[in-house]
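Need tokens for this chain, all 775 residues.
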Amino acid sequence: MNTSNPKNKVGLLDLELNQLTKALFLALVALSVVMVTLQGFSGPWYRSLFRFLLLFSYIIPISLRVNLDMGKAAYGWMIMKDENIPGTVVRTSTIPEELGRLVYLLTDKTGTLTRNEMVFKRLHLGTVSYGTDTMDEIQNQLMNSYSQTQPQASGNNASSTPPRKAQSSAPKVRKSVSSRVHEAVKAVALCHNVTPVYEARGAAGETEFTEADQDFSDDNRTYQASSPDEVALVQWTESVGLTLVNRDLTSMQLRTPSGQILTYCILQTFPFTSESKRMGVIVRDESTAEITFYMKGADVAMSTVVQYNDWLEEECGNMAREGLRTLVVAKRALTDEQYQDFENRYNQAKLSIHDRTLKVAAVVESLEREMELLCLTGVEDQLQTDVRPTLEMLRNAGLKIWMLTGDKLETATCIAKSSHLVSRTQDTHVFRPVTSRGEAHLELNAFRRKHDCALVISGDSLEVCLKYYEHEFVELACQCPAVVCCRCAPTQKAHIVKLLQQHTGRRTCAIGDGGNDVSMIQAADCGIGIEGKEGRQASLAADFSVSQFKHIGRLLVVHGRSSYKRSAALSQFVMHRGLIISTMQAVFSSVFYFASVPLYQGFLMVGYATVYTMFPVFSLVLDQDVKPEMAMLYPELYKDLTKGRSLSCKTFLVWVLISIYQGGILMFGALVLFESEFVHVVAISFTALVLTELLMVALTVRTWHWLMAVAELLSLGCYVASLAFLNQYFDVPFIMTMTFVWKVSAITVVSCLPLYILKYLKRKLSPPSYSKLSS
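Here are the structure tokens for all 775 residues:
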């Protein structure tokens, strides 16, 4: 039900290049029409038009797509080979440049910003609260409670407990703290879906082993469960003395501090669901035959189920403000008749053909009434390593960070502050719960009056605001330095991503670690999955997979930035390569009475786009303006990329003018300097063209790599070696003369030297931000 067809993601750079290619096509048609017009439409002019279209077809950069795709593959390889971000996988090789154009970063909380490794921190009984420093008191009370019941066991393997007897004989009497602690710990130790697992002692290769081969010691036991919260609770009960030692489908065994084994028969289990937000279990104590229904869940689900109390809501809020995940634990004692009646109705509901789920839920709800509130537990989910500096770096890089989580408002706010997503000194506007259009209007007006404050909103309020005031809400939220959406459903997360894309037109990135984040990851322009405790659904559905949140900083600021800058330089150079030769063809045709005759033929045209210029042009994928360490130290450099200045109409027009200037100089120079034979024009102009291309690559490069120098020399060597074989295009004796050398050198210098001077002056008078750092 959660599957949706993921869209094919196309990078912003590819869309921009498509627009420029369309402009080049129009230029090709216009140039061909101009040439035919200057011919005077004499003879079969339409034939000349198609000849000119073919002659100038080099204006269309057909090799651009091949070069770019090879470049993208190279960037992906560099990302996966980076030792500073081990375990990173590039799953979508078409959008590495997107990592350098991001404005909005939408992240999950549990398992993404936090480790999803739970540690038990707090037990609250209503009148008394225990923290990490007072856990030894719980241990002592539990030990005393079980040691008092030991004499009454009289040889039995299990013991009954005084608190149970006290409750059954006099339920109105207020219980002692010791008995309440005992009941609470026992409830936590029984109400779960955790299974203890023991490793076999036999050889690793043996699959079959007897029970004697198993080591039942505490050191060899590990707990397995679908939720790390449950494992943390069971590990805590073990630490205070009540240990879960065995569990199968029908029974559970606990070991008391004194070493006794208590056996409980599991009669029914009601698993946790995202709708009910609670789970329950009905057990029978084998020693006393007492039947008890235990239940635990979120405070919103449990507050209506437990008996009236005046502390639960307040204490849940207090714990949430400390960043703890809260669970409410309750119980209800059942008589044999009550249980028998429930079981009959439950089985009947499970057999019904129509509305089975609703009927089963209704029967279970009949038990969930006036339950005795036992305790409130608080579990801490610790932040991942280096989350704070990573978020700080991303904020300095100009990214706006939104946290979308299913957790409570207070817990989400606390984690947002502890991770420095929201500064502790920063004003925070908590959006009051709204249910109607009027309330949403009032709350939006209150929010509009605040400036530069973080927004915290729940999923329900968000739904109402988007229903009535979508545009106004998104406009206001986009101005916030940080936004926290709590109690978000998976579909809501994806909806928020799409809203940002529609209303801002900016690039979005979604980060998550679980199956509930998949829809958000697929909806975003760039999806990053983290391999965590919740499986690999997010990692496999994402475009990029990382092992830790802190790796995202380097992935964006270093690899995203360099991928975009390199692809921009590469694509513009490939366009320049086609434009310059088309300019030369246009000049040549104009001089010779607008004849539709090719300037270069056969292998020269093939060689020009391949062996003579391909390696140096492609070596631009190794170029970098600043070192990775510098990019990490100054994330502000990333801000420039969102403006798209590396590839824009302005830079494109500059390259067009360079191509026209160089093409004109090369062709006119060759025509002025050539002697008696026309073959000399081809030799001089083509040699000067190849040298100009190699020098232009050298001019574009910002940081030299040894492979770049090899590519330049290899291409030059290939051209020089091929001169000996291309007798039909070149006059070999003429090439060997000094006249040829000085003419080629003169034309090349005139075509390139002014550009070198202009580049030098620009760096001196208006240096780019990165050059200030590198100097």
